[in-house]
Amino acid sequence: MRISRIAKLGAGAAVTVLAITGWLAPAWGTAAVPAQKPSMSSPAGINALAADIAAARQATAKYATSLAKAKADGYFIITKMMPSMGYHFLNAKISGFDVRKPPLLVYEHVAGKWELGALEWVFPSMPKNPPLPNATFGFFPAACHYADGQFIPDKTASTCPKRAPHSHAKFTFWHPDLTTMHFWIWYPNPDGLYGSTNSLVTPFNKG
Question: If I label 62, which of 49, 69, 159, 160 is the partner at 20 to 30 A Cα–Cα?
Answer without folding.
Answer: 49
